[in-house]
Structure formats: structure tokens, C-alpha cells
Amino acid sequence: AQSVTQLDSQVPVFEEAPVELRCNYSSSVSVYLFWYVQYPNQGLQLLLKYLSGSTLVKGINGFEAEFNKSQTSFHLRKPSVHISDTAEYFCAVSRVNNNDMRFGAGTRLTVKP
Amino acid sequence: DAGVIQSPRHEVTEMGQEVTLRCKPISGHDYLFWYRQTMMRGLELLIYFNNNVPIDDSGMPEDRFSAKMPNASFSTLKIQPSEPRDSAVYFCASSLIPGEGGELFFGEGSRLTVL
């Protein structure tokens, strides 16, 4: 089965600074990769996803992620964060032609003024 | 569409009581998933359905847990009897074709506290 490791449980950063949230995955077959965001007391929402093609994927709210097959990584980046980006971020993986999606443990991003 | 709807949003119960969580998926979505979120274990997949049929229930922790999907617009997750370690946020999600890269749409979750 596939698995996901998010390397940082918490990332504090100042407003307008860049941020990178790291994600590594493991799978013996081709995968789809996702980043979701969870605001307090809410469900998860999709930020972006990689299915195929260009390895650089752009999502909502100015976020982007890069798929690196050789390093089995899918790191999330934003060049300048806002206070409103404070949330929990989850990396997820699903195997191609398989229907179960597995999530990482999450990274809590805290943006400070 | 109203999105995935879960009820109740909050449930507080005593150990030994039966708990039933409910989910209405997005109309037209053939896949429905139940996840559990805790601080210790993160987001765990409990079970998922395709066209109302349970496909993989290997994540269901014990026989105390059961899930049903009697029709395309309704699913339940039942815990009987409940225990304090079942305290968690339970999420329902639905999707069109996850195996082809379709995203999951999550409800707002049901926060369960077992005393």
C-alpha cells in the first residue's frame, strides 16, 4: 500500500515570508498526489493535485507544489504567506486505478504578524 | 450543491452507549469514505463504499464499529458499545472517480466525545 510522510509537524513563519511544507511518499506503483488544507473546525479542502504532466502544479490561494519522482517528494510552497494561511495542511496519495486515499500526519502552519 | 453533510456536528456520550453518525454525500458521487482523525493517529481511513457496496473495511478498528450505506444518498457509521478511546473527529467524504485522480470532498466532521 502507499504511504505518506510529512516531515514537519509544525511550521511557524512570519507574515509575508516564504514557506515550504515537505511531503515524501512511498509506493511501488504510479500515484496521484494531493495537498489539502483544514481550517479550524472544518473539513479538508483541496489545495492542488498532481495527476500527470508538468511536475509543477499550481493551486488555490497562491500555493504550488512540485512533484519529484526521483526523490518521491511533493513539497508545497508559497512565496509569501498571509495570516489567513494559518491552518493544518495534509499531503495525500492514492495509487492510480485504486480508490483509497492515504493522508500524512499533517503540518500545522502558523503565520505570525 | 450543498456539499457533504454530516450529523451530528458534536456528540457527547457515556461509555457503553451506542453512537450513530450520519452522512449525506454529494449527489452523483459513487464513492463514499469514512475517516477518523485523532491527534495521535492523524487521519485514518476506516471504510469506503462504491455504489453503496463496502469495498474495503480493513481500517475499521474493531467489531464494535459498523458502517452501512442503504442508498446512494445516505450512510451511517455506528459504534456499539462506545469507549473513551473512540473519541475523535469522524469525517465523511465523497468522490466521483478517485482511482482516476478525483478529489475527495469532505464534510465538516462529527466530533465525538465518549466519557
Structure description:
The complex is a heterodimer of chains A (113) and B (115). Chain A has strands at 3-6, 10-14, 19-21, 23-26, 31-38, 44-50, 56-58, 64-68, 73-78, 87-95, 101-103, 107-112. Chain A is mostly beta strands and 113 residues long. In chain A, strands 2, 5, 6, 10, 11 and 12 form a six-stranded mixed sheet that branches. Chain A has a four-stranded antiparallel sheet with strand order 3-9-8-7, with no helix packed on it. A two-stranded antiparallel ribbon of chain A has the order 1-4. In chain A, a hairpin with a 5-residue loop joins strand 10 and strand 11. Chain A is globular, with a radius of gyration of 13 Å. Chain B has strands at residues 5-7, 10-13, 19-24, 31-38, 42-50, 53-56, 65-71, 74-79, 88-95, 105-106, 110-114.
Radius of gyration of chain B: 13 Å
Oligomer: heterodimer
- Please give the count of helices of chain A: 0
Low-pLDDT runs of chain A: none
Q: What radius of gyration of chain A results from the CA coordinates?
A: 13 Å
- Gross geometry of chain A: globular
Biggest sheet layout of chain A: 6 strands, mixed
Compressed to H and E, one letter per element, the order of chain A equals EEEEEEEEEEEE
Structural class of chain A: mainly beta
Biggest sheet architecture of chain B = 7 strands, mixed
What class do helices, strands and sheet pairing of chain B give? Answer: mainly beta
Pair with the most extensive interface? A-B, 24 and 24 residues
Terminal-residue CA separation of chain B = 36 Å
Order of helices and strands of chain B: EEEEEEEEEEE
Average residue-wise pLDDT of chain A: 93
As a percent range, the share of strand residues of chain B is over 45%
